[in-house]
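pasting Protein kinase domain-containing protein for the record, 251 residues
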Amino acid sequence: EVFLAMDTRSNRMRAIKAIPRGALSPRHPKAAGGGGLRAVQARTLKRQLDREITILTKCRHKHVVALYEVIDDPSVDYIYLVMQYVDDGPLATVDLDGRVSRTLPPGRMLRVLRQIASALQYLHEHGVVHRDLKPDNILLSSNGDVFVADFGTSDLFDRSCSASEVSGTRGTLAFQAPELLTAEGTGKVDGRAVDVWALGVTVYALLFGKLPFGNTNASPADYFRAVKSCPIDFTLPLCDDAAPDATSLLP
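structre below
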């Protein structure tokens, strides 16, 4: 659950993410039943929460959503993350048919894309691979700035190494790089390249109002087949609110 609250010290609105302890530990008194599956789910959620806190604590960038405080009182049934409140919500949402509904103000396309790319470059320079970059995980403020959010499925890598290897499919299939599917169970791929692919899909979706490879209901096999065989159509009309100079992004 996410609540809106006023920080009386700064007189600013904050988003408070409340995570029930029972969801993080099957042994917690408030945990629901479910046996072994419940234990696996709890461990997964705990890893995601720890990862998100670690990343947001170390990464401070003007276009990455900020984490201000973690309230972890064992006597309380919830862990609270006090986060930056971004007032206009997701940059866009994608429906099951792959159509994109946007909230982007007219004439802000290139500015927004530069901000997303700047945040992504910063994350990679600080050893973070996002793994689920998509319009739903980019928040838009009323002044037209954007903030990359939702790091629960992200990965950390050693910046002293040249590789940022990741494996396994996470996040949203329609934004997954195809090498993740071909390498499933057999090896690792460059996580930074995975993020760049997702950025490319995001740019296409914002420019044309649809996904480049079908819908979000596709199976992994159908999605991979579409990526391999369906040419990307850059001749579609741009969305009405795309900036005129956004055509410079097209091949």
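Helices lie at 35-58, 109-125, 178-182, 191-208, 220-229.
The chain has two domains: 2-84, 92-249.
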